[in-house]
Write a structure and sequence with these properties.
The structure holds two protein chains of two kinds. By secondary structure, chain A is α/β, with parallel strands linked by helices. Helix content of chain A is 35%, strand content 18%. Chain A has 14 helices and 17 strands. In chain A, strands 2-3-1-4-5-6-9-10-11 form a nine-stranded mixed β-sheet, with helices on both faces. A six-stranded mixed β-sheet of chain A has the order 12-13-17-14-15-16, sandwiched between helices. Chain A is globular, with a radius of gyration of 21 Å. The mean pLDDT of chain A is 92. Chain B is an alpha/beta fold. In chain B, the strands form two sheets. Chain B has a nine-stranded mixed β-sheet, sandwiched between helices. A two-stranded antiparallel ribbon of chain B has the order 5-6. Classes of the chains: A alpha/beta, B alpha/beta.
Chain lengths: 409, 236
């Protein structure tokens, strides 16, 4: 890396100090405040910190943090990699990540969907990974077709190498204008947001992973990478069993995108895959914690598509605790609960908690799912017999549970 | 087509007009009817398919600007919803669906777009997005308790002489003039977002009563707990 100008150096250093102070005083992990301080002193800090590094930006409504982690692991084959591992995914978090790894020649940044155009513009990242777009926290995020349109505009005519999921019509439409795209058939289970053509609004015909508009020429681009049954097929047609430690189909999708991205950076699949297989948990997700003989596996689900994935990972034989909040990072509106099909929980012991447990309770009642309401997470744990328990929580509810267990990772 | 004895719910265009939990209104109506032993048949009508005229209750959800315009255009061309409303079917529309059953609404550039014309209302784009909890006193002749819900829209709606306001806002924006929603006969529209009937079971029952007559009481514990918690959060 070339030397930063003096002001940028100072801004980055003060930001790091603020981050350290934040951690030492127990206010947070410092990922946001450090970057904010830095940007206040040098508004151009992100661009300066990004210059002369090879960066990948990772965006989606689900799987950003995990995929960022998988790509980071793979790229460590090449050398030091700067990354925002804890999900601080707006420019302040990017500044913190890059200033904490001053000399890393590579960077993998998780980027909030709304900020992708701005961060791409500022950093001039060489690679952008786009995985999925589904309904998500509508009171604070934009409508998703609008988001896809913004992505499309940001990528059009740019020299960026885009790695995109061809199976998600909104993502594919957004990525199509880019000059260089590697298409991955990464699958898409959630389809409620893509029954209509993003180009003309006509009905989309969908069969297996393929899709095409009935009224205009838009159709799924031809992928070169494919997710198959617990395996990835690369552009040479070779099949690579995934054997991930992370559970569930969604993580296999994330791994397929990560492998294609690693190859774009020059890391071949035979070197990337062993690195990806080492990842066991990501920022507390999928981790197991224990209290008084209760062994709790923590799953995060922030939106309807995420709940579908969490149910896929969850063991139907186990009791389950569900926790839902509606703070600003979660979205204040709990309407999305009605887009989750909770009927799969019928017959399971279900414990409901979180600040918006009454919303969840009614939702389950309407779905004819029996449950028990618990004022706190601790009450839910106490009410259960020792043994294995699955926990699904949305964002701030998840963070509260993690904090109870000393920020489990 | 559904059998004669069942309550027939028709969910209009889940592919275009289902942005965020709108399906909740279908689920709540189904659940409250079935809890009383009333058989229900629900039809999901995609935008490429014709709207059947023989439904009892038609539900319309929210949508982004372009799907809303496409939805309006297809419904106008199809005519099934209008014919059903003419013969007295119940229509319940939320958010973009509410605007769309009016005379006109604002398109994605703010230009007026013709609606389906079931309600004498005209909507346009406001200056500021209305996002947050809403509470409103319902028109006394409907005999319903305070409306509670969440709103998330840019719209402002002017009510014509052919409709009455559904409610008067205590908290929130609604139509933008102190009123929220509108109704005429058995056609009801509201800016309440998504699963509006989940927090307003009495409104759900009103829609059901219009079709099946008197209703037996059912256990409303969970509905009432949620209402109490939400109303306390916004009215205290």
């Amino acid at each position: 890396m070339t030397q930063l100008p003096l002001r940028a150096q100072l801004a980055a250093a003060l930001g790091r100090t603020a981050a350290t102070l934040s951690r030492m005083t127990g206010r947070g992990d410092g990922s946001v405040i450090g970057g904010r301080v830095g940007l206040l002193l040098e508004p151009d800090l992100l661009r300066r910190l990004a210059a002369n590094r090879r960066l990948a930006l990772v965006s989606a409504t689900n799987g950003k943090t995990t995929t960022t982690r998988l790509i980071t692991s793979a790229l460590q084959e090449l050398g030091e990699v700067a990354t925002n591992a804890f999900g601080a995914n707006m420019p302040a978090g990017h500044v913190t990540a890059l200033s904490q790894a001053k000399n890393a020649p590579y960077g993998v940044l998780e980027v909030d969907e709304k900020y992708l155009p701005e961060v791409l513009d500022t950093t001039g990242a060489a690679v952008v990974c786009l995985m999925n777009l589904s309904r998500d926290q509508m009171d604070r995020a934009a409508e998703i077709w609008l988001l896809a349109k913004k992505w499309r505009r940001a990528l059009a005519g740019r020299n960026t190498h885009v790695i995109a999921n061809a199976d998600d019509p909104l993502v594919a439409w957004a990525a199509m204008g880019a000059s260089r795209v590697t298409w991955v058939s990464a699958k898409q289970r959630w389809r409620e947001d893509s029954w209509c053509c993003p180009e003309c609004g006509g009905p989309l015909d969908r069969k297996d992973d393929d899709w095409a508009c009935r009224e205009c020429p838009l159709r799924r681009p031809q992928p070169t990478w494919f997710l198959a049954e617990n395996a990835v097929i690369d552009p040479q047609g070779r099949t690579w069993p995934l054997d991930l430690q992370l559970p569930g189909r969604a993580n296999e999708s994330n791994a397929a995108i990560a492998l294609a991205t690693a190859e774009a950076f020059g890391v071949p699949i035979e070197r990337a895959l062993p690195r990806i297989r080492e990842v066991r948990s990501v920022a507390g997700r999928y981790t197991t914690v224990e209290r008084d003989g209760r062994v709790l596996r923590l799953l995060l689900a922030k939106n309807p598509a995420g709940w579908l994935e969490a149910f896929d990972v969850s063991d139907p034989a186990l009791p389950i605790i569900l926790s839902v909040n509606a703070q600003v990072p979660d979205g204040r509106d709990t309407s999305w609960l009605y887009d989750v099909d909770y009927r799969v929980l019928r017959g399971r012991p279900v414990y409901v908690t979180g600040e918006r447990r009454h919303d969840l309770a009614l939702r389950l009642h309407v779905a004819d799912v029996q449950f028990r309401l618990c004022p706190t997470f601790g009450d839910a744990v106490d009410a259960l017999a020792p043994g294995k328990i699955d926990v699904i929580a949305n964002y701030t509810a998840f963070q509260q549970i993690r904090a109870e267990f000393g920020r489990a990772v | 087509m559904p059998s004669e004895s069942a309550l027939r719910l028709v969910w209009i265009y889940p592919d275009l007009l289902s942005t965020y939990g709108d399906q909740g209104n279908v689920l709540v109506l189904e659940h409250r009817a079935r809890s009383r032993g009333i058989p229900v048949e629900t039809l999901h009508v995609r935008s490429a398919d014709p709207v059947p005229e023989s439904g009892d209750i038609y539900l319309l959800g929210g949508g982004e600007d372009r799907p809303q315009m496409l939805g309006a255009e297809r419904l106008r061309r199809d005519g099934g919803l209008q014919r059903a409303a003419d013969r007295g079917a119940v229509v319940f529309a939320v958010c973009a669906g509410y605007q769309l059953i009016g005379r006109e609404f604002g398109g994605d550039e703010g230009q007026p777009v013709p609606g389906v014309g079931l309600l004498d209302i005209a909507s346009g784009r406001g200056e500021k997005r209305a996002v947050g909890e809403l509470a409103a006193e319902v028109a006394p002749e409907l005999g319903l308790p305070t409306l509670t819900g969440f709103e998330n829209h840019m719209g402002v709606t002017r009510l014509g002489p052919g409709v009455k306001p559904l409610s008067r806002t205590l908290v929130g924006t609604g139509n933008g003039d102190g009123t929220e929603g509108a109704y005429a006969g058995r056609i009801v529209g509201t800016y309440l977002h998504g699963p509006a009937l989940a927090r307003n079971p009495a409104l759900a029952d009103l829609l059901l009563r219009w079709v099946v007559g008197d209703l037996a009481p059912i256990d409303d514990t969970w509905y009432e707990q949620l209402r109490k918690e939400r109303l306390a959060a916004v009215l205290s």
